[in-house]
Amino acid sequence: MDKNIFHMINRGVEKRKIFLTNRDYIRFIHNISDFNSVDNALQSYMRRRNDNLMEVTEVRPPSKQLVDVFCWSLLPNHPHLLVAECGEKFAGMFSRKIFGGYTMYFNENYDRSGVLFQGRSKIIPVMRDAHLLHLPFYIHSNPLDVFQPNWREDGIKNIKGAIKFLEEYRWSNYRDIIGQGQGEFADASNKELFFDMFDTNKRQYQQDMIEWLKEGEYSIELTDS
């Protein structure tokens, strides 16, 4: 693939929770699709501001995308995304839009001011194939922090329970990729591009995830040096 690929992560300031309700998670997921455009970010924010955020994302008019989104998962205090930029410096623009837009929403909704995230988001270039092939499993397994804290250090105590948890976890595109999400947030990522990029399909990826969890090689460097 000719495009530059990046792993994005940004934690709440002081490790605080940034998603407090279902509405908050849904707002950020809408940001992934709404702000993935060269169009003005404020227009997207104001358009979504008064929407019923509990409803499924509606189809928006097509426009030039900033990035192709392969994977995402949201944890209570941080999100992960794996993207390929569609133009020079588009990944940085996308990051500023989604995190800036969410900060505006959060501060307005919870009557607060100031920063919400720990400075600039980490936008980590993925340079090695081995790193790239490992990242989807790393990102999609992150919600296990909710299921079993310290699972990386201690090992997964209940593999079947962990697999079931990930397949039912709403705040990740893993469900959509393996065909169990009913397309709820389908426009926040591109499933077909994911299959093409990683030479897989929904059944194969589901099986590979199970094998990856069983193997127990969970760690990954957040740099690609």
TrEMBL record:
One BP term from GO: DNA transposition
Transposase IS200-like domain residues: 1-142
Entry-linked InterPro entries: Transposase_17, Transposase_17_sf
Any one GO molecular function term: DNA binding
PANTHER family, A to Z: TRANSPOSASE IS200-LIKE DOMAIN-CONTAINING PROTEIN, TRANSPOSASE, Y1_TNP DOMAIN-CONTAINING
Protein name, UniProt field: Transposase IS200-like domain-containing protein
Biological source species: Candidatus Campbellbacteria bacterium RIFCSPLOWO2_02_35_12
